[in-house]
Amino acid sequence: QLPAGGGGGGRRGRAGRGRLQLLLLLSHECPFPAGAAMTTQLDARLPWPMRLLQPALRVCRSSQEKAGELQSLQQLQSLQQQLQRRTRRHRTIFSEEQLQALETLFHQNQYPDVVTREHLANRIHLKEERVEVWFKNRRAKWRHQKRATASALTLQAEQPPKEGC
């Protein structure tokens, strides 16, 4: 039994729900009493976008309506597939002025607070989220450079000095 929120699913937990509904529509006998609303565990297990369209998922009215509902269900499944496909956010291309402002602040403070980030974001016409991610990535780059420099210095110290001929 899954809770109303869908349960600890992930993608694998959602697979097959559309097929189960399709099987219910295609079955010859209605598994629910006539006129009963399908607010059952089946509806509760649907992802939230599909729950918004619940009235279209009601089944078991008459055998004549099954063909139309089958088509509606197929359309809803197509909609669900489109919702599940995540579109990638475009990569932000920073201008030279934006990069200069970000780098200047980074040299002053590697961990600016949200107010400082918002102020900078407004000044350089970016979203605060992009500024936050830029700082996160810049700190990672800084740590990487620091490690690389430290390992290069260690290697230089370990090599014996070259003797002249």
List the helices and strands and how they pair.
Elements: H1 11-14, H2 17-26, H3 41-44, H4 48-52, H5 63-84, H6 96-108, H7 114-124, H8 128-158
Helix pairs in contact: 2-5, 7-8
Structure description:
The chain contains eight helices and no strands. The longest helix is centred in the C-terminal third of the chain and has 31 residues. Helix 2 runs antiparallel to helix 5 and helix 7 crosses helix 8. With 165 residues, it is mainly α. About 15% of the residues have low confidence. The N and C termini lie far apart (82 Å).
Helix share bin: 55-70%
Taken from the alpha-carbon principal axes, the silhouette is elongated
Tally of DSSP β-strands: 0
Return the average pLDDT rounded to an integer.
74
Radius of gyration: 29 Å
The helix count comes to 8
- Cα separation of the termini: 82 Å
Task: Give helix and strand order, one letter per element, not per position.
Answer: HHHHHHHH
Q: Briefly note the structural class of the backbone.
A: mainly alpha
Strand content: under 5%
Biggest pleated-sheet summary: none
GO molecular function, one term: DNA-binding transcription factor activity, RNA polymerase II-specific
Domain Homeobox: 85-145
DNA-binding region: 87-146
GO cellular component, one term: nucleus
